[in-house]
């Protein structure tokens, strides 16, 4: 009996790797075989998840945070020329900053510096995970930094996203969670409209161009960046389908299972590719808006710490081995 354990991070508390290990130890304590396969959807934890499969080594370099202060973020670079950059590393909403965190002036310039740095170091394929940004600058800050840093030097760009929001809608959809009030949202929207007209291609009617406050749209318009579902890209890279085909069950996880889970998140991608394998969810909490989506799972178990995650793994393995039905929900 083999259980494939493929959780996302519990944001702010446990990394995907920590969740996978806790659940796996529980499975193994019941005599099962556990395959640890931490995942991400293009946001927090993407670099960690892709480091081993892509053979990435860490590169720490100088950059700027969203408000122009110096910072030293890390990205990954492989010997065969693949770079993986999290936009949250230099342009994130949680990036350290001592001054005002103004959502209107926040810029992706620092992420552009990382892209240019990767290109200078020989990257041929640059993958940017677009989750967790503090910015709504339409990617113009990043474009300015890339051009100032010598351009892409022939490298291709792929932007990973878990949203389908379009360019000029980015402020309305994501601005409030970045601290923008109604007036700031209106101002940022007008700016995005003007930037869309000024870019080499208009991203306004293209799905997913609003990711990271329009960063994805700016990259698409200026550099022809490929826009991909972060969840699908990561599942492809880590060989999910092959591992799932040989599993007796699959365990997914995230900090909160709710109505947003089915909108391009990693769990929805796993469910779509799980085949006949039952899928169990081990999560930090369950939203009231989950509705009938809960029926997609063999069971949903709430586990708020490592001990509870271990117990969840133990219970799932025990029930699978005895064939006695669904584990009790937490």
Automatic annotation (TrEMBL):
GO biological process: organic acid phosphorylation
SUPFAM superfamilies reported for this sequence: Glycerate kinase I
UniProt cross-references to Pfam families, sorted A to Z: Gly_kinase (PF02595)
The organism's place on the tree of life at top rank: Bacteria
Record bears the keyword Transit peptide: no
Signal sequence annotation: none
UniProt keyword annotations, A-Z: Kinase, Transferase
Coiled coil: none
GO molecular function: glycerate kinase activity
Family: Belongs to the glycerate kinase type-1 family.
Protein name as catalogued: Putative glycerate kinase
Annotated source species: Rhodococcus wratislaviensis NBRC 100605
Taxonomic placement: Bacteria, Bacillati, Actinomycetota, Actinomycetes, Mycobacteriales
């Amino acid at each position: 009996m083999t259980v494939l354990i493929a959780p996302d991070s519990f944001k702010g508390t446990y990394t995907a790797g920590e969740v996978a290990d806790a659940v796996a130890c529980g499975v193994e304590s019941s005599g099962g075989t556990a395959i640890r396969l931490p995942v991400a959807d293009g946001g927090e934890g993407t670099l960690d998840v892709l480091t081993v499969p892509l053979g990435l080594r860490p590169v720490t370099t100088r950059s700027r945070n969203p408000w122009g202060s110096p910072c030293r973020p890390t990205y990954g670079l492989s010997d065969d020329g693949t770079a993986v950059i999290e936009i949250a590393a230099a342009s994130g909403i949680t990036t350290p900053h001592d001054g005002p965190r103004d959502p209107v002036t926040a810029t992706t310039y620092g992420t552009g510096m990382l892209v240019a740095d990767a290109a200078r170091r020989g990257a041929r394929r640059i993958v940017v995970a677009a989750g967790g940004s503090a910015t709504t600058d339409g990617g113009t800050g990043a474009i300015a930094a890339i051009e100032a840093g010598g351009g892409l030097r022939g490298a291709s760009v792929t932007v990973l996203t878990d949203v389908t929001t379009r360019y000029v809608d980015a402020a309305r959809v994501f601005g409030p969670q970045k601290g923008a009030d109604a007036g700031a949202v209106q101002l940022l929207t007008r700016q995005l409209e003007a930037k869309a007209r000024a870019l080499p291609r208009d991203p306004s009617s293209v799905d997913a161009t609003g990711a990271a406050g329009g960063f994805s749209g700016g990259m698409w318009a200026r550099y022809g960046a490929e826009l991909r579902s972060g969840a699908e890209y990561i599942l492809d890279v880590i060989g999910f389908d092959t591992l799932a085909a040989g599993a007796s069950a699959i365990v997914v996880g995230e900090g909160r299972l709710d109505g947003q889970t089915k909108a391009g998140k990693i769990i929805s991608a796993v469910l779509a590719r799980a085949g006949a394998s039952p899928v169990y969810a081990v999560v930090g909490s369950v939203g009231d808006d989950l509705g009938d989506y809960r029926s997609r799972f063999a069971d949903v178990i709430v586990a708020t710490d490592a001990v509870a995650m271990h117990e969840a793994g133990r219970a799932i393995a025990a029930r699978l081995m005895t064939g006695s039905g669904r584990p009790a929900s937490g």
